[in-house]
Amino acid sequence: MMLMIDVVFATLFNIPVWMHLFNIINNLDGVKLGFIISLPVFLISALNFVFTPFSFRYIFKPFFCILFICSSIVTYATMKYGVQFDKTMMQNIFETNAGEMTSYFNMSVVLWFLFTGILPCGLLLLVNIRYPETWIKGITYRLISMFASLLIIFAIAFFFYKDYASVGRNNSSLNKEIIPTNYIYSGFKYVRDFFVSPGEFRQTGTDASRTINEKQKPVIMFLVVGETARSQNYALNGYSRGTNDFTKKYNELISFHNVQSCGTSTAISVPCMFSDMKRKEFNSRKAVNSENVLDILYRTGVNLLWIENDGGCKGVCKRIPTINIEPSNSDNTLCKKNSCYDEVMLKNIDEYINNNSEDKLIVFHLMGSHGPTYYLRYPESHKYFKPTCDRSDIENCTHEQLINTYDNTIRYTDYIISKLIDKLIEYKDEYDTVLLYVSDHGESLGENGLYLHGTPYNVAPAEQTHVPLITWMSPGFVSSKKIDLNCLSEHALNRTVSHDNIFSSLLGLWNVNTSVYNKEDDIISSCR
């Protein structure tokens, strides 16, 4: 029975690994036949060594039932979307909401789960397993089995060490793809870090003060945090399709062409862009236990409001006023299934603005282009590019359908941004107004077999890390802040920036003086 389980895991649940190995070997010259034959033997032996300690009575069936069920889901996600289950992906899973989780359900995944998860588990529960009569015999048999596995592994290493070392050295992600050890190890790392105390709460910019000119108008800033928008599909950045038809009419609008995200998932990118920690040093646990740039602005007298339509602000907004859009409590015409169109966020803006006449910053966290159900992100009236992919198993749509659907989400977000700019224009006589839009991360749409996002940053494609960032400033804001828009436009074309620049750029736009402000990171400072 143990050998059968080893074989099932080494073959069925590691199909993505074998596909990867096939591509690797196919591009190698002079590969030894013995090396190829040894690969499944090596994996079966390694899994047997790991699994055998869990084959005791009372542990065997529940343990492997759980592994069958979890491995079925992991294999499907890896095989269909190219997902890698590292620590960040486990964080995404633990922090997801019901609406996002159900968006991945479709007939393909249900059938796969039934046949590779539920069915093997059911058969395992029904089969009668004969265990050794005594504990001594049981331990002895298992030690012999584990020792035999080690002998096989050492024998393979003796004959083919150079081949394994070469393939492993040039394809370092392979060992992180083996199921179930990949998600078990990553899950352990996430849970371990979750329960480790992050230490004392860290305040940031406690010396902050804001320079206010009483002769100038108060300021309204709309900060729009996008979801899953990639720069490659922005007409403002050279894309051939009309995905920015609504905002291209604004002369004061500037699009930055070379912007890198902090992560490839919302759980990392959103807290990172508001944090004073840079991407390379960012720690999500520390970020949750630290103040961010919004806390600094709030402390210096800026009236803040966070409007949430993407399932959560990842801890960024927990110390400022927040409105969570709930599909069950919102306008039914703008909500569908477990989510609402971003247009619902446009309601009651006048009420928020007219609440007082002071400086205010409103953050809009969009649902944007969240997949895989891209077709649910825009109303029927915004189905501009056709035919579309109106299903969640996007890998079964044609590439044309998928791109059309995704481009519709980008175009709809552009519509939302244009409405927000129009609203700011309405208040130009009473306020100096500004809008900043930036996406949290990009998206893969089948390029190189990858879908969605969440690929480890060091191997992630540009589609997942190259994001749009645009600014719009009213003439009054430009004048009061003494900003040279021609200079800024030139920088937007030629300068490479990232989420690391958001922290100091926001402080600079609000004239905040603090030791944590870095002028070099402020994308506006060189044009003032």
TrEMBL record:
Domain Phosphoethanolamine transferase N-terminal: start-end pairs: 43-192
Annotated membrane topology: Multi-pass membrane protein
Keyword Nucleus appears in the UniProt entry: no
GO process annotations (BP): lipopolysaccharide core region biosynthetic process
Entries under InterPro entries matching the protein: Alkaline_phosphatase_core_sf (IPR017850), EptA-like_N (IPR012549), PEA_transf_C (IPR058130), PEA_transferase (IPR040423), Sulfatase_N (IPR000917)
Recorded GO CC terms: plasma membrane
Keywords linked to the UniProt accession: Cell inner membrane, Cell membrane, Membrane, Transferase, Transmembrane, Transmembrane helix
Residues of the Sulfatase N-terminal domain: 222-511
Location within or outside the cell: Cell inner membrane
Molecular function as annotated in GO: phosphotransferase activity, phosphate group as acceptor
Transmembrane segment boundaries: 7-25, 31-51, 63-83, 103-127, 139-161
This protein's record includes keyword Iron: no
Annotated Gene3D superfamilies: Alkaline Phosphatase, subunit A
NCBIfam families: P_eth_NH2_trans (NF028537)
Protein name: Phosphoethanolamine transferase
Source organism per UniProt: Escherichia coli
